[in-house]
Specification:
The chain has 465 residues and is α+β, with helices and mostly antiparallel strands. The chain is built from twelve helices and 18 strands. The protein has three domains: 67 residues, no CATH class; 240 residues, Fructose-1,6-Bisphosphatase, Chain A, domain 1 (2-Layer Sandwich), CATH 3.30.540; 124 residues, D-Maltodextrin-Binding Protein, domain 2, CATH 3.40.190. Helix 9 links the parallel strand 14 and strand 15. Bound molecules: 3'-phosphate-adenosine-5'-phosphate sulfate and magnesium ion. The site of 3'-phosphate-adenosine-5'-phosphate sulfate (PPS) has 20 residues, from strand 8 and helix 7.
């Protein structure tokens, strides 16, 4: 039955109101007979002090259906007003974040080229044995410095993956020198990206300070940035996919998400191949300087109902906003037999056997698309895949910088991102996504999502996870 949205919120106070405005296709939600089954609801509503509110991903324990007709004319007017104020609210943050990520991608491309052409070992191990390179520290220093310059260091709080300890050790002097050089080479290009670089190159202490300034612990109040300087470091060192991920989190909710994917192929079929094949083909038939065959930045602002993709800046070109940006939308495929599901490459990061069982049980027939990094989120947002699943081993705690930017981009592109219990990911409790129920599931649409959630429930007890 059609339902007035004010009464919906009043009747079901457990529904989360998130001040989101979404595309008309989000306004549909699918009824279900199962108690507490997951529903994707987005409703523009006039509620409390005449502020527009939207109702978003929630559990819903009844069998209503809501149609887009609930968006009454006056509410549409309110939506537009709110839309404008939201746009104004985060426009500078989004602008700076996209430019900073463009610069970070430029930096990573240079370092990755160097990796590929030289065979000497440039990969270092962190205390937890995970790999780290010159690019991780250099991107962290560069983005931290740019954000501080743009907003004032007192106003900038950053949660980021790398710390400065191992870089400050005496035996890491050569590495530190390489980081300082890489940062300065990148910052020298800042004007090309529409940002201001330093008047004179940064010294070692300034670079170390920029890295160590990213020492926020996040939390439920106020604003902070979450940065993964090189997500998918394994993909990066193997010459394959990786991402630079930056999000602004306000009062525990990601409000701006930006992902740079330097090796993302514009032809989606290339996503299934190691990036080295793309490089070989590009050498055989070089793309023209005007063609856009790979590399992008995707971004979204919470509540805009839009997600965007723009090409990476090539050669000596300048970034002129919005840099040929185009909107991206999730795929409309609802039939699992036609859907593509993606997951981490490393089986130590997510159980391939469990996801294979889930995929099979819901009727997915295609081979999984295994891609490093948050490029998986980008693939869902762009409609190149329909399902993303990650089930880490028990005891592993997911970190906010690995998911925040991707979650806001997929949701604004029309998709759904939750844990395996159907709850939104909680970015408000420090550097970890606390309380995560089993795993992470992102889907292009609510129907596919609901099927996967049910399949997890049906097979969890018999899994070894
Ligand atoms: N054991 C374990 N389980 C689950 N996840 C882990 C684990 N160890 C690390 N990580 C985090 O996973 C990030 C990489 O995730 P991906 O989806 O890109 O995995 S994969 O590289 O494709 O296998 C990776 O991000 P980066 O360190 O930035 O590469 C880690 O934050
Ligand atoms: Mg990561």
């Amino acid at each position: 039955m059609p339902l007035n949205c004010s009464s919906l919120v009043t009747q079901f106070p457990f529904i989360q109101t998130t001040r989101r405005l979404l595309n008309p296709h989000h306004v549909k939600f699918h009824s279900s007979s199962s108690l507490f089954s997951f529903q994707h609801i987005t409703i523009c509503n006039q509620y409390k002090n005449k502020t527009s509110h939207l109702v978003s991903l929630s559990k819903f324990d009844t069998n209503y259906s809501v149609s887009s007709s609930i968006m009454e004319e006056e509410e549409q007017h309110e939506s537009l007003t709110l839309d404008k104020s939201l746009e104004a609210k985060y426009s500078k943050e989004l602008d700076v974040a996209v430019r900073a990520v463009q610069m970070a991608c430029f930096l990573c491309q240079k370092v990755q080229e160097n990796f590929i052409s030289k065979s000497n070992n440039q990969v270092h191990s962190k205390d937890d044995n995970s790999p780290v390179t010159v690019a991780d520290w250099s991107v962290q220093a560069t983005v931290s410095w740019l954000l501080s310059e743009s907003f004032g260091s007192k106003n900038v709080s950053i949660v980021a993956e790398e710390d400065v300890q191992s870089l400050s050790k005496a035996e890491a002097a050569g590495l530190l020198e390489a980081v300082v050089k890489t940062v300065n080479n990148c910052l020298a290009e800042a004007p090309r990206f529409g940002l201001q670089g330093p008047l004179i190159p940064l010294g070692t202490s300034e670079v170390l300070e920029a890295i160590s300034r990213c020492n926020s612990n996040g939390g439920p109040k106020g604003r902070f940035w979450a940065l993964d300087p090189v997500d998918g470091t394994l993909g990066f060192v193997r010459g394959d996919q990786y991402a630079v991920a930056l999000s602004l989190i306000e009062n525990g909710e990601p409000v701006v998400g930006v992902i740079g994917c330097p090796n993302y192929p514009m032809r989606k079929e290339w996503l299934s191949y190691h990036h080295r094949y793309h490089r070989i083909i590009s050498k055989l038939t070089p793309p023209t300087s005007e063609s856009w065959d790979k590399g992008c930045v995707m971004y979204a602002r919470r509540g805009s109902g839009e997600a965007w993709i723009q090409p990476l800046i090539q050669g000596n070109k300048k970034l002129v906003w919005p840099n040929s940006a185009r909107p991206v939308n999730v795929s409309s495929i609802e039939n699992p037999a036609l859907a593509t599901f993606c997951e981490p490459v490393e089986r130590s990061n997510s159980s391939h056997s469990f996801t294979a069982g889930l995929a099979h049980s819901v009727g997915v027939r295609k081979q999984p698309l295994r891609v490093y990094s948050m490029v998986k989120y980008a693939a869902i947002a762009r409609g190149d895949a329909e399902i993303f699943m990650k089930f880490a081993r028990s005891g592993y705690k997911e970190k906010i910088w690995d998911h925040a930017a991707g979650a806001v981009i997929i949701e604004e592109a029309g998709g759904v991102v939750t844990d395996a219990g159907g709850r939104p990911l909680d970015f408000s409790r420090g550097i970890y996504i606390e309380g995560l129920d089993r795993g992470i599931i992102a889907c292009a649409g609510a129907k596919l999502h609901e099927k996967i959630i049910r399949a997890v429930d049906a097979s969890w007890d018999s899994s070894s996870l």
